[in-house]
Amino acid sequence: MNSMKNIQKRVDEWFRQYKINYWQPLEMLARLTEENGELAREINHRYGPKKKKVTEEPHNLGDEMADIIFTVVCLANALDIDLDKHFDRVMDKCYGRDKDRWKNNT
Q: Which of 2, 12, 19, 39 gives 64 a disulfide partner, CB atoms 3.0 to 4.6 angstroms apart?
């Protein structure tokens, strides 16, 4: 299983094989916005009213989502943020806040 720590390590190893540093936070935020737009466009083409032009190739939704994850991980690594810790905190919040919000499957 890929933990966030493992994913963060893999991204960092990719960067370290080249003589490049992480991009600046605002650059990564711009890229994240761009990647989100690409995912939104593909979802809109598939499930919304805006259909693709006949000349446009379909994009893989999983690949578009993975681009977003990669960019978020780059930002987290550059800012020394432990995503495992913060994701656990978010899930704890969801389980606490939303425990009575919807009907259980059981």
A: 39
How many Å separate Cα 50 from the centre of its chain? 24
**Could you report the per-residue pLDDT of 29-55, keeping only the tens digit for each?**
999 999 999 999 999 999 999 888 889
Block residue for tokens 């919000």: 101
Sequence-distant (≥ 6) Cβ neighbours of residue 32 within 8 angstroms: 68, 71, 72, 75
The full set of domains in the chain, from first to last, is 4-97 (1.10.287.1080)
Asked whether the beta carbons of 11 and 73 are under 8 A apart, the reply is yes
Instruction: Kindly state the tokens that stand for 66.
Output: 């993975």
Cβ atoms of 5 and 37 within 8 Å: the answer is: no
Q: Which two tokens stand for residue 92?
A: 């704890």
Q: What CA–CA distance (Å, rounded) separates 32 from 30?
A: 5
SS3 call for 35:
helix
